[in-house]
Amino acid sequence: MNTNNGCLSALARLAQYGALAAGVFGLAGTAQAQTTYNIAGLADFTGPYADVMKDMTGCRKGVLDWWSEEVGKAQGVALRIKEYDTRYDVAQVASLWPGIKSELDPVAILGIGGSDAAALQQRLPNDKVPQILATAGYGFAWKSDSWVFNARATYPHEVAAFYTWLQKKSGSTAPIKVGVISSEVSPAYVDIHKGTEKFAKDNPKILEVVETVYTEAQPTDLTQQVNRLVRKGATVLQVFNNTASVVATRRALQSLGKTNIPIVMSAHNGLVSSGKALGGLEQMEGNFEVYGMAMSTDDPTPARAYFEQLRTKYKAQVSYTSACIMGMSQGLIVARAVEQAIKTKGAKGVKGEDVRAALLTTPMPSERSFGVLPDLQYGKDAPFPTEGLAVNIGTVEKGKYKLLEQNVPMPVLNKW
């Protein structure tokens, strides 16, 4: 593959998307006196996700800088973000929020994940400020009229798309037999395996969960547990916990001589990070990751071309990682929502409730996010889109991280 030619082609498509944005927003107007809207950024520079926070916050800031220059400038509008270190701690988020709100009067919040939702979801309806998270959603947050929005549907939604795809790819009508590695140390982990088990129960012709194994937070040896799953006939192992769990599972398969059994994982513990922890990407040969956003491969995609623009033109000091793509996704969601709110209300006087109304009423086609996200349409029934979404599937082939399948349809799931 000629990556340079591919990127040039992607850049050409990027220019077309920019033209579309200009046409929709009416950028031919005369620039006016600038109105600045503040965005509150919740970050983790000293807690469990500090190692990836530079890319996440840098990429979402890059998006807002891009939007302010290339979309908002003609209307006299700029978006500015200020980051606050919450250490991914619920109490810290709750403690900081009143001061953040008073200082910034933000029209939106860009959060990291569950800690931010847990701390603020009861307050935001009164404060009238929507929060956008870059992570997948959770079944326990599947409530109506939320002010917290996820860029992606739940992890069970995403992995259900993978199993449906894998069965079709196999050419067999037999259900996929999966062994789930989970843990009770986090409500999020419990939610993921419960959602997977519910999908299997509702779709026995597609998926059978042979067993769910519970581990500690940082497992070191899972040989006995993995051997039990293999004896029960598991042909895929699902590990959505963390990188340590992937590493222990892969080492167990290696010691058992069963490396032909693939592991499926998500963005936060995916192929690159797990391969690095194992000593090299080649250690993840034949395994999979799945999620509903672009993947940080070298493939020449519009998302990669857009990232290169942020890095070169807008001086974002970041790397093209899954954390960066998460930052880009939430930055684009909030920027496009503000864009729509301005189109509806005018450049001045936009409030948080106007941004939320735009999220709920205005679809965001994939080209409006430069392929960073699939087509999005929020509704009042859930804090994430529950249908019409798609996922991407990545793998390691001959030691190379690659995009295997794009826009795999995501099935509709029942609540669990």
TrEMBL record:
Pfam families: Peripla_BP_6
Signal is among the record's keywords: yes
Residue span, Leucine-binding protein domain: 37-363
Keyword rRNA-binding: no
Keyword annotations from UniProtKB, A to Z: Signal
Residues in the signal sequence: 1-33
InterPro entries named among the record's database cross-references: Leu-bd (IPR028081), Peripla_BP_I (IPR028082)
Top-level taxon of origin: Bacteria
Family the entry assigns: Belongs to the leucine-binding protein family.
PANTHER family linked to this entry: BLR6548 PROTEIN
The protein's name: ABC transporter substrate-binding protein
Species whose genome carries this gene: Hydrogenophaga borbori
